[in-house]
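Most newcomers find our protein records easier to grasp once they have seen one. To make this concrete, we reproduce a full record directly below:

…
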Amino acid sequence: MSTVDALTGQAMVVLQDRPLVALSAWISGALRDCEESGRTLQLVTPLETRLSLPLRSVTAGAAAQWVVRHNDGFYEGLSGRPLQWNGSTFVPVPQARDYAPGFTTAPAAPVGAQLGLTYRVRHDAEGLLGAAVDRLLQLLTGKWPAGWGPAEPLENPWQPDRVTEYARGRSTARIIVGGDGPRPAQAVCDFSTAGGGAVEESTTVTVGYAPQDPPPLQHLGSLIAAMAADQPLTSMSVQLTPGRADLTSEPRWMGAAAPVAMAVAGNVAGPAGIPAQQVGPARAPMTLFTVGDGRSADGWQRHQALVRHLQAAGYGHA
């Protein structure tokens, strides 16, 4: 059980001195309280602490922050930016011009790769909302998902009909889905009502790969084609992030994420210089654009050029 260690008009501060901090039901509730009150949830941990993937995704947003305590100082766990306490909240150190020393220490585990696939799909008023993430995890891991829940640890066995019942009963819903295969895999799914009983889904599935086990990027086309055959998608983007194969995050620099590809529904013309191919069945075709190799930062330039091109063409979900 966690407790609030400091509560001000700007922040709710929670100390977490444990090896791994996950998105527990208590932390989820504290996050909701902060969103309603306009505060920031600041989780303070030592250098040795790791965050689970779902909790890391929360602290990457504006409502929560990972604060790391090291050598009598503090820094932001995801960026390495030095922080200080101003009496009400942790804020950046004005005179700091470099990463905090703890952020540049050697990783505690070998650096592998985390393959992230983010898809968007619009569900009709009927049908299973868990079918898309079910299919993608099967394609990536070879097995059905293991379980799901709104917080960690996942308390429910995998049942797409129960996921549907849970998400359709709310205007917005976020769930976590755990994979069950030879490699760690997790999904964070966001659902929102879209009128007329329709539901918009935005889901990121992440799979961890050890250094000696490279992600199968050469099979992306066939994977997206198989996905589109069963679950027509609006779009899918793919990127690689250096990190631990177990999908947890250390408060250290491990390398920057880099884009690999983006697929959009339909036969879409892209900008010059960005390779494209048609994938998927004739009834639900998709255009797959290759923008990078997942290692080079210049892939972001091609990614941004592609997004600008698609948005100018009226493709709103790029």
Q: What stands out?
A: Residues 299-312 form the longest helix (14 residues). The chain is about 20% helix and 35% strand. The longest strand covers residues 112-123. The chain has two domains: 6-102, 112-312.
